[in-house]
Specification:
The protein is of the alpha+beta class. The protein has four helices and five strands. The chain has one domain (4-154): Roll (Thiol Ester Dehydrase, Chain A). The chain has helices at 22-32, 36-39, 41-46, 56-80; strands at residues 12-19, 93-99, 108-120, 127-137, 143-154. Strand 3 and strand 4 (127-137) form a beta hairpin. The two termini are 18 Å apart.
């Protein structure tokens, strides 16, 4: 669904799953968020989290990777059918970013996205604005992470 006109509010997309291992948590933390509870099991156990915790930014970055990977796959599938999809536009931002539950070493998150709003752009008629609720649940079915994404999507203009 490359065009805003082809999308529907309520459409849901499964983006994939990811397991946060201790090694990956520490590697991300060393590079981007070097807080003790992300770097050391004992510090994690003594923290409010109760275990080695993934950085919230790590959790968000994985979701972005899965989203981009899914979209690339859709573009490749369309190209194999001879369909050229238009590029999506940039994102002007997001809202309501929340880390609901800590993500600990060994947790597997499953990410999804659901379209919550579609509208034409007031200043650029060839573009529309999509809002989607992106979320991740852990292996126990608990909501761990969510935010509302906003993006520019091309429209069919005749």
């Amino acid at each position: 669904m490359p065009y805003l006109d082809d999308m529907e509010v309520g459409a849901r997309s499964e983006l994939g799953s990811f397991t946060f291992t201790a090694e990956l948590i520490k590697a991300f933390a060393r590079q981007f968020d070097p807080q003790p509870f992300h770097l050391d099991e004992e510090a994690g156990r003594k923290s409010l989290f109760g275990g080695l915790a993934a950085s919230g930014w790590h959790v968000a970055s994985v979701g972005m990777k899965l989203l981009v990977t899914k979209r690339r796959g859709e573009i490749e599938e369309a190209a194999a059918r001879g369909v050229v999809e238009p590029p999506s536009g940039p994102s002007p931002g997001f809202r309501d970013l929340k880390w609901h539950k800590p993500v600990l070493a060994g947790d597997t998150l499953t990410y999804s996205s659901e379209i919550t709003s579609l509208r034409a752009s007031g200043s650029k008629p060839e573009w529309g604005i999509l809002e989607a609720r992106n979320s991740a649940t852990n292996q126990r079915g608990e909501l761990a992470f969510s935010f509302t994404a906003i993006g520019f999507i091309p429209r069919r203009i005749s």
